[in-house]
Hints:
The protein has helices spanning about 5-40, 60-75, 105-110, 120-130; strands at about 45, 75-80, 85-90. By secondary structure, it is mainly α. Pfam families: DUF5759.
Amino acid sequence: MINIFKLNKKRDQQALNKEYIFKNVLAKIHNKIEANSNKGVPQLIYIIPRVILGLPTYDQINCASYCVNKLRANGFIIVYTYPNLLFISWDHVPSTLKNPEYKTLAYEILTKPDADYSEIIKEISNFKTLKN
């Protein structure tokens, strides 16, 4: 007789593996973003690899969707080009040196990085364009 719970366990394990792979790709993107930021470059073009050595194969398009959603929730501007190209920009985020009123927002983002700040950053960038 077949055990239905073993089938569910296998499905759940596959979902966990997929999440692990997507988080791994997102961590690589975060590392590239930090490297570019340290160089003073406020944008990045990232190609999601078809295969990552040491990890099982994965769906590139679903991975791109996952990364786009996470990065947008973090406040980045993302332009996605099918199937695996991401343009990531954080040039729209105001400087806390030039605008000290944003210092508290920057502190909040550092202390609560998982919160969704995309709406606040859109308002700031809209205000910035109206100012110019």
